[in-house]
Design brief:
Blueprint lengths: L1 E8 L3 H11 L2 E8 L2 E7 L6 H21 L2 E8 L3
Antiparallel strand pairs: 1-4, 2-3, 2-4
Helix pairs in contact: 1-2
């Protein structure tokens, strides 16, 4: 398992998480603000991207609300090794 971190502005948060979901090899996405976890999104590997996006819709709505409150945050991504 590989872990990556991205720092994004609040306005870019939802779009970046959508990109990560579409990549398909992402196992978990965590949103951190000042080092503290705000939300943890586990993703099931092997489900089609369209299904993953549909299941993640409520989470993306929550991320939109968080994005309105923070100016900058870190996205921590766990990927499966290929």
């Amino acid at each position: 398992m590989t872990t990556e971190k991205f720092t994004v502005d609040g306005s870019q948060l939802v779009e970046k998480v959508k990109q990560l979901i579409h990549q398909g090899n992402v196992r978990r996405v965590r949103l951190l603000h000042k080092g503290r976890p705000l939300i943890d999104i586990p993703l099931t590997v092997g489900i089609p991207v369209a299904v993953a996006t549909t299941l993640a819709a409520p989470v993306l709505a929550a991320l939109g609300a968080i994005a309105a409150l923070v100016t900058e945050c870190t996205i921590e991504v766990e990927r499966l090794d290929e």
